[in-house]
Specification:
Layout: H1 3-18, H2 25-32, H3 36-43, H4 46-67, H5 74-91, H6 93-105, H7 111-128, H8 134-153, H9 158-176
Length: 180
């Protein structure tokens, strides 16, 4: 493992164990077994390290989403993607919070996730038809997901977050999908 990988691994571990407050350059260097100049060489400063953690989190999140097998049921695929980000957020809450905050400042961080969701909605339109135009459907799904992220960021307890998520997805899918 390279020094850069050791630093990143140590930083993610500290983030998950101690939260953002535990993510000091001194603690990261100690956990990674490197000196401060090594950390600064690879990441510039703590902000650069946090950006690298966020980028790693986004890459892991998207790998999880892309690993979901595409089926002949785009609504089920959309649902699995929806549930997947809720699960990721609840399993890695500190990292997920950092990712959401970073995406607010740099929306390009969420672009791949948006495009993945959009692909499922396009498939949904082709397979089932939609009650609204495609662009409205895509924006509605993204807005609903953003609303769930807001509840996550406000600290809604996991059981209520999951229940709200199930209800919102059901209401959204019933409103979007054309009935035969």
């Amino acid at each position: 493992m390279s020094a850069k990988e050791k630093i990143l691994t140590a930083a993610v571990g500290l983030l998950e164990e101690q939260g953002v407050d535990g993510l000091t350059t001194r603690a990261v260097c100690e956990a990674a077994g490197v000196t401060a100049p090594t950390l600064y060489h690879h990441f510039g400063d703590k902000n650069g390290l946090v950006r690298a953690i966020v980028n790693e989190g986004v890459a892991e999140f998207m790998a999880m989403k892309r690993a979901l097998r595409v089926t002949n049921d785009p609504l089920a695929d959309l649902r699995r993607g929806w549930d997947g980000w809720i699960t990721f957020g609840l399993e890695r809450p500190t990292l997920f919070r950092l990712m959401i905050e970073a995406a607010r400042n740099d929306p390009t961080l969420a672009q791949a996730s948006y495009e993945h969701m959009e692909e499922n909605v396009v498939r949904l339109e082709a397979t089932n038809g939609l009650n609204v135009e495609l662009a409205v459907a895509v924006h509605a799904v993204w807005a609903a997901a953003s609303g769930m992220q807001a509840l996550f960021m406000q600290g809604l307890e996991p059981t209520k977050l999951k229940a709200t998520s199930r209800f919102l997805f059901k209401a959204l899918s019933e409103a979007l999908v054309a009935k035969p």
